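pasting for ref
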Amino acid sequence: MQLTSYDDFTPLREIIVGSAENYLSHERDVTFELFHHENLTGFRSDWAYPRLTAAGGGTPQSWSIKRRFTEELHQDVEALAATLADLGVTVHRPLPLPPNAASIAGLGWQAEPTPALNIRDNTLILGDEIIETPPAIRSRYLETRLLAPVFRRYYEAGARWTTMPRPTLTDLSFDLSYARDAATTLGGPTEPVADPQPSPYDVGFEMMLDGAQVLRLGRDLVVNIAQENHRQGVDWLERHLGDRYRIHRVHRMADNHIDSMLLALRPGVFLARHDGIRDLLPEALQAWKFIVPPEPDPGAFPAYDDTDLVLTSPYIDLNVLSINEEMVLVNEDCTNLIKALESEGFTVVPVRHRHRRLFGGGFHCFTLDTVRDGSHEDYLS
């Protein structure tokens, strides 16, 4: 059980698959609203979800998820884990969130915890090192504790285990410039996150960085920076890693995560939302082939009503998971993407994932690859 993972495409040997057990509600507060701001509009649409009565600060609101959706999500995640096991991959799982989990609290805030489902977000695996990254959503502050038993086993087998500095997460910890600049958003008109409240625990902007903002390519890391919180996180990462990795900063490819914008399927080949992403990348990567699939089919998604929170864009199905340089797990409902990948010579394994837009993640989000055959290779030279 030796941790070693440098990329997202060489042969996969071991992986952690998240848990959807007891994912019963979304904890809506200023941190949740800010994180999902690109899907906020003043009206109900394909890109919108219902607004709270007051924005910023205040008391969090628990937004219930229909029981049918939570049960079907659980079924689909368990089927994903079974598919990976059938393909010969060793699958590890986090602790399930208890059905009546106690609230968690920080300095000046309280939140109901969420299960460790989108586990790509709060952890970054770099070679033989586990790096727990600083979360931006209060309800996810202790999420990696549900992964601690797996991390500990890797640590006892020789892995390094590091935690980046944890933010205080007061309202004023957040740089709101990206959310307030409508010209930067990719998803249509956006309501600003307004009225952040001062706190005696304010320390100014704090570092926040998710693992899903990092594209791993052997010794090279492409990291998305949309605002000051991210910049501070990347500064820390550069100092911590030293000359072990080359970090390439890309600016505002998205609001935070880029694994529904750009994924490396093999050396020299990207899956991309659009070809314009090429211009944001380091020059050595601009020559790679970009597979840009057709626009998502609206009929491939379930219909939801005005009380359901739609947390992702229709491009979420680009969030695929590679088993190796030839085989890719893809949502079975995304037939256009399947055809596009097959036409490029990939073997596609269709897997069901019905409610990806309600729970903010796809197969790449739900997983954390811990052992792949790839090495600390230089793919850019």
